[in-house]
Specification:
6 helices, Ribosomal Protein S8, Chain: A, domain 1, alpha+beta, GMP Synthetase, Chain A, domain 3
Amino acid sequence: MAPGSEPGSATPAWASATFSDMSLDLGFRMHAERTPNPQSIKWVLSEEVVDAQQTANFQERVGAEISPLAARLFAVEGVVGVFLASRFVTVTKRDELEWADVAAGVVEAIKAHVASDDLGLGPDFTPGPALPEGEVVDRIREVLEQEVRPAVAMDGGDVIFAGFHDGVVEVMLQGACVGCPSSTATLRFGIEARLRDAIPEVTKVISV
């Protein structure tokens, strides 16, 4: 999940049969990609599930009024996290389960969602609180938006700017980044190193 890392590997073997009839039934294509987090799989879709540039991260069950897609995915036994981006969904499972036990249910949930024509996010979904503004914050946002977030998204995660004070940048790790063994290294040697190089006012980056 680090900026500059390789994207997810090819579709896992268990996924091929699972997806065999989806493009014929629904008129869209999807495939699974592994992420650096062994408990998270990135499911790439050929159509948007949320608006471009929008993301939503759920670490507990939600109702359809907040996210019809997340509600369907959390109904699958073993699913403990759902991250929605424009054209991909990252699903996180319980540690003790194998993906072969969970994947079919995830695919059926996505299939049901696309067939329903429901939106990815419901009317009760609310974005995060307003964030600080200023020249330094604008430069931080620019680096995150143009360099960091696209790289992390390739591995099924996201990095959301949460604040800046006294030289410290606060970010929220989402999707496959949550619980990923390499997230600490990514934060320090990837995100923090890049921001400190580009913006002298930045001294540290922490996850909140």
